[in-house]
Amino acid sequence: MDVTLRQLAVFRALARELHFARAAASTGLSQPTVSKEVARLERTLGVKLFHRSSGGTSLTAEGASLVDAAERVLAALDDLDRAAGLARRRSTREVRVAASPSVVNHLMPLLLSHLERTDPPVDVTAVEVETGRVSAALDQGTADLGLGHHVAAPAHGRVRTIGQDELFVIAASSVLGASDAAVDLSRLTDVPLLLWPREQSPVYHDALLEICRSRGLDPLLLTGTSRLGGSRSYLLREGRAFALGPRDFAVSEGLGVRAAPLDPPAFVPLDLAWVEPLPPAAEVVVRQVRALTDPPIPTPL
Fold first, then answer.
1. pLDDT digits 0-9 by tens, 138-176
2. Are the folds of 5-88 and 94-301 the same?
3. Residue 254's CB: how many other CB atoms inside 10 A?
4. How many helices and strands (H and E) does the chain possess?
5. What kind of fold does domain 5-88 have according to CATH?
6. Overall pTM > 0.85
7. Residue 301 pLDDT class (50, 70, 90 cuts)
8. For 191-239, what is each residue's pLDDT tens digit?
9. In Å, what is the CA distance from 19 to each residue of 24, 35, 64, 87, 138?
């Protein structure tokens, strides 16, 4: 049977969207191409898969009965691709590590420096991702390991907390005051909190808000940026907002601001995520990460 994988991918997309334009967008194909591939698949299978009318697109009974089979074929192809990638990586010393902004400027340089001295050396590629995108990099096959805060478990792997990073208030001196004393968040009621949109990292986002509220602050949110060091960082420098993050992140980003601890202190988990099974070179990286965070940063009592 001369069925192509592209035809199955188009069939799956149209079965999900029931809209040719949206199916075309999700597959990266033109709408005429989607129509042609569906027609070719119908001819090959000898059944009509969709009802097409001015009122819209719907699956026929035959089409609906074949969706699961197409999903299984495409899932098997994904498994084959992952297995091939693992086989390639097992024969090399290359490991790709996805790192969020709060990790990439401090822990990652330490990790790379130590791994250069292993025998034989491990070739580590840092895959810099936005907050909340570590697991996506693992799921998409662009990374083997991931480091970040409040990292979700990847679909084909695991996540483990390996330490606790203390949170700091990141702001201009006009907000923090002249001294380096710990900051009581309840006194920042007139200063908005600069934070990424919740959908980017819901658990991390909610954890930061809970830390604020548990200290008597229900902050006004500014969420028009995907990272604190991005286009809205001027708000921090000008004293028009504050942020929360690890101190090393604030210093290494060069935001032109200061970092002060919270009173009382607050911590966020530093997580290591990976895709299973781990290639030998990745196991070396995992051991080194653990060594660099052992003993872990102190946790609150």
1. 998 889 999 999 999 998 899 999 999 999 999 998 998
2. no
3. 10
4. 12, 11
5. Arc Repressor Mutant, subunit A (1.10.10)
6. no
7. very low
8. 999 998 999 999 999 999 999 999 999 999 988 676 666 677 889 889 9
9. 9, 11, 15, 38, 30
Under DSSP, is residue 142 helix (H, G, I), strand (E, B) or coil?
coil
Cα-atom radius of gyration of the chain, to the nearest Å? 24
Give the C-alpha distances (Å, rounded to integers) separating 237 from 126, 170, 205, 248.
28, 10, 22, 17
In the chain, what are the domain boundaries? 5-88, 94-301
Tell me how far apart the alpha carbons of residues 127 and 12 are, in angstroms, rounded to a whole number. Answer: 30
3-state secondary structure of 246: strand
**How is residue 92 written in tokens?**
């090399």
Read off φ and ψ for residue 170, nearest 5 degrees. Answer: -110, 115
Supply 62's token pair.
């035959």
Which segments of the chain are extended strands (E)?
A: 50-53, 56-59, 94-99, 123-128, 145-149, 157-171, 193-194, 221-222, 243-246, 258-261, 267-275
205-209, long-range: CB < 8 A, 24+ apart:
207/150, 207/268, 208/167, 208/244, 208/268
CATH class for the region spanning 94-301: alpha beta
